[in-house]
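Researcher: Next entry in the queue.
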Amino acid sequence: MSINIPAHYYTEFSRNIDLLLQQRNSRFSDKVNNGNHSGEKASPVDQIGKIEMQDVVTRFAPMGRVDAPMTRRWVFPISSDLPQLIDTFDALKLLTDPKSKYVENAVNAANRRKDRHVITNFFADSFTGVNAGTTETFGTTLTTAGGQNVSVGVGGVASGMNVAKLKEGVRRLMEADVDINAEPVYCGITSDEHDELLNEIQVIGREFGTPVFGDNKTLQRWWIINFVHTELLGTGTDDAAGTSTMCPMWVPNGMHYGNWQSNITDISQRKDLQSLPWQAYLMMTGGATRLEKERVIRIWAR
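Model: Structure for this entry, 302 residues:
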């Protein structure tokens, strides 16, 4: 056997490029009101408030008038981008072209960015008025103590997600005259709340109704509530002065996602950098706002 055979050894590089675990699709943007906009800010809707009829108490009295309250909601754009460099020398060592996977990875990030816009603005300040001059904070419209907030103590002291919290959230939507027969009701949950709901006999017990599992794997629906799983939900200081997950319950007309510019992707070679690397670039511009806080409920889950 020739001692020169080792000279023919070679290194085989992987022919596959796999993306690591991540949320790939947008789970919220298609479950809210949507619109396309331009300019430094946009008004997705002009709103007319509730009015009531007046009793006639005098014959032939002068006719007065009733002025409906009017307001205007505003949404502001936020631009985001994601440049990724692929070294030409590294690309030469690969047996497959990595650029398409880089773009796919960037699109996944853009989809999560849309969800973060929506999730953040469920409970953030929203802006109204003729020229966005009035700030509306979240949480105090309903006559129920706590307003739009379902206490962390509902269904148990400092408890997680449970049937009592879900029912109370729906009750508060109904209290605000939200037509839950006309609009679907959604609730955002993380894996923790999903696990807690699987311990609720009213959710999984068939004697209380048939729970809906997606492909018999995850809980998709219970009663009138459609669950949206995400690990992007934020935490905050709840009404018991602890830190809890903020789970939104909403109907589509309670939130708006505004699109200024959908994903723009570009793959080009950077002539200004050493080794002339390839750049996979993606940019987008969008924003979200709460349209009507009575259509949004915050459930505190431990």
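Model: The chain has five helices and 16 strands.
Researcher: Noted, moving on.
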